Amino acid sequence: MPSTLYTATDILTYLPHRYPFVMVDGVTSLDPWKSIGSFKNLTLNEEFFQGHFPGQPVMPGVLILEAMAQTASLLVSISHRNFPEACPEGIPVEVFNDALAFFASCDKVKFRRRVCPGERLDMSVTALHQGTRGWKVQAFAEVEGKRAAQAEITATFINTKSLAGQAKA
To answer: Which one, of 107, 31, 40, lies nearest residue 76 by Cα?
Structure first.
């Protein structure tokens, strides 16, 4: 099992999500601005297992997608804060100041196996396209080396200061 580069506590400084919606427990690998590996330890205590499905608990596919998307968000956030000098050419690192990543689309989504309590969901994300307004990534989720899900995820970045202005309007 790979060592943990960033712990669950560290992740809370990089993601805006909070319990019960944090879907990443640790980061195991990082190539700044290019790729990241993470994991989520699944226990029967997860709220979603209580109703999905009683007696046959399965992690909802949409939450597997969310875990992969949060991993992608961590790639950008950790890279922005800790490795600004390595930001891709042509993208001013300031674009990511006060920005949140929002889902724009999911393509080529496939679910390959059930994900159940007691398992560890390992995610890997690789940047396919990096721009000032959005990114596209290839994401995979596995359990014990077997593919559970995959998707191409596109996210757009929105400045939180502009969001605050929208809320007042």
So the answer is: 31
Tokens 């990443």 — which residue?
24
**pLDDT at 6 (0 to 100):** 98
Q: Angle at Cα 64 formed by Cα 154 and Cα 109, nearest 5°? A: 50
**Tokens 């879907």 map to which residue?**
23
Spell out a b/e string for 132-146, using b for 16 or more CB atoms within 10 Å of the CB, else e.
eebbbbbbbbbbeee
Check if the beta carbon of residue 22 is closer than 8 Å to that of residue 70.
yes
**Exactly one of 17, 52, 80, 129 is catalytic; which is it?**
52
Contact 155, 66 (CB under 8 A): no
Please name each of the domains of the chain with its CATH number: 8-168 (3.10.129.10)
* Catalytic (active site) residue 52: yes
Whether the full predicted model's pTM is greater than 0.85, yes or no, is yes
What is residue 3's predicted lDDT score, i.e. its pLDDT?
A: 86
Residues of the chain with pLDDT under 50: none
Specify the pLDDT at position 112. Answer: 98
Alpha carbons 155 and 106: distance in angstroms, whole number: 9
